[in-house]
Structures are given as structure tokens and as C-alpha cells.
Amino acid sequence: MANINEIAKIAGVSVSTVSRVLNHHKYVSEDKRAAVQKVINDMNYTPNRNAIDLIRGETKTIGFIIPYNNNQAFDQMLHGALNKSVEKGYTITVLPTKYNKEKEIEYLSMLKNKLLDGIVITSRANPWEAIIPYSQYGEVVSCEYTEHPEIGCAYIDRYSSYLEVFQYLKEKGHTTVAFTAARGMQSVSTQQTIAAYKEIFGELRPELYYPDCYNMEDGYLAGKKLLALPARPTAIYANGDEIAGGIYQYARSLHMNIPEDLAIIGQENQPIGIALDFSSVDHQLIKVGEQAFDLVIQKSRQKVNIPYRIIHRSSI
């Protein structure tokens, strides 16, 4: 198989000129570029990308850690990063963890082994103390706020959004409000939701909090349990519009009217929410993914707050 030295000899140029052509450097004369490219085509030469990456000092590849796919929130962040990667000429490698701590550290080790230029963490299993040491090998950017100066972040002020939702429901006359969540108390967002609830409504009746909701089926089960309570809620805040869709489906099976019998508000302004005219808290996660990607390639450790918005529709 041909190598870079043979190409240089046949083309009548230096090895460094061939290297510049392979790496698409601008400062190569057109005649030399054409001569090198002709030899490459004639010899059907395929460059060793790993070797080129080592010479260039970058892989043009960003790792994107998500706990799982087929989830609208993480899919939206990934979508934002993919938009930017195409625009900037980078590749995104999706790294699913299922919140496995060892798997997450295995992915972070790819920075140390120079397989990635940087990593975006949408949601983490490990404490920051276990993650921070890897930031010396490449950029690590979080999609949640962190005070650590070694880590850049593109984040939403989720706590403020939860406060605003619960205050809005209270102003609409709702005093018995339930909510769903994904992970339990190990999740920062769940802790923030509970804290915001208590600030607006006082103590939380445990039965008004339903965890482990990830999809429409989980929402249906949440609706089934919450709407069977003796003092059932008059409003439910779902942690996603798909989950809100499941709650809606169960409520309609009881011939309940929305919003007269039950108010529903979802999250992330997903297609099902738009179709069913749900109010929704849009955390603008596509923008979060875009900004997180930009922070990685800019080697920036800034803390960038992405504003949320509450979309008011007929479900409240």
C-alpha cells in the first residue's frame, strides 16, 4: 500500500506538502495541490485518519454522553449539537450510559486516550470530583449548572422554571397539585422540583409525587394512580409532554374534561403537546445542545444560561 513518502516522491513535492494537502491547509499552491491529488487518486490512497489526527492534534470528534436515547429531552439536546457539528465540520459520537458510573468513566477515558477532542455531559451518574480530573485531557462541558471552574456549562435555571409553574397553577386556583419526575431523589432536577413545590404550596403530600416517568405509558400509569387518590389533584405538572399525553389519555378514559376537571402542563414543547394543546415549559434544549457544542470547540469554560419560556395553551 502506498504511503505519504511515495506520494511525495512521485508528485515531486515534499512530505510536508503532501501532509498539508491531506489536512486541507489553505497555503498550498494550486499546481502542487493538483499534482498531489492526482497521485493520491492514481494510487487509490486512503489516509490513516488516526495518524492524521495525531499530527493535527485533534480528532474533530466530540463525545455526547446521554443516559439513554428515545427520550425527547436528551434527543433535543443531541439534535442541537448535531446541527452545530454539521455546520462546523465535526463528528458527534453518542455515548449512552444508562446512568452506569463505570461506563461514564470509560467514556471520559477516551479524552485521555486522544480519541475525542471533548465531551458534552447531558446528565451524569458520577459526582463532579470523579469527572473533573479528565478535563485536563480535553474540554468537558455540562448541560447542567456547575460552579467548578474546570467545567464549562450550558444550562437552564430549572429551579426558577419550577417555581414559576407552581406559582402559575396556584394563581389559577389550584391547591392540590401533583407532579411527575424521571429519576428519584438522586436527580438534581427532582430535588429542585420538590423544593420549588414546597416553597409555593408548603409541605408535599408524598402521594402527589410520582417518580420514574420516562414515556407515555409511564404517564398513563401516573394518571391512573394520581387520579385514584381520595383527594385527587386538580392539576398535574408532567416532566415531559409525552408523559402529559399519557396522563391525558387516562383522564379521558374517565370522561374527565381538560382543563375543567383536570389541568395539565407538560415540558419541552414536544409535538404531542402541541397537537393536544398542552401548556408546556420549554427549556429550549436544542439551544442548550448547540451552546454546549460551541463551548467544547471554543475550549471555553463559560457558564451560559439558556432562558426557558412557559407556553400557555388550553390545558390550564
TrEMBL record:
Gene3D superfamilies reported in the protein's UniProt record: 3.40.50.2300, lambda repressor-like DNA-binding domains (1.10.260.40)
InterPro entries listed in its UniProt record: HTH_LacI, Lambda_DNA-bd_dom_sf, Peripla_BP/Lac1_sug-bd_dom, Peripla_BP_I
Keywords linked to the UniProt accession:
DNA-binding, Transcription, Transcription regulation
Query: According to its UniProt record, what is one Pfam family this protein matches?
Result: LacI
- Statement: the UniProt record of this protein carries the keyword Transcription regulation: yes
Start and end of every HTH lacI-type domain?
2-56
Q: Which CDD domains does this entry report, sorted A to Z?
A: HTH_LacI (cd01392), PBP1_CcpB-like (cd06286)
Entry's Gene Ontology molecular function annotations:
DNA-binding transcription factor activity; transcription cis-regulatory region binding
Q: What name does UniProt use for this protein? A: LacI family DNA-binding transcriptional regulator
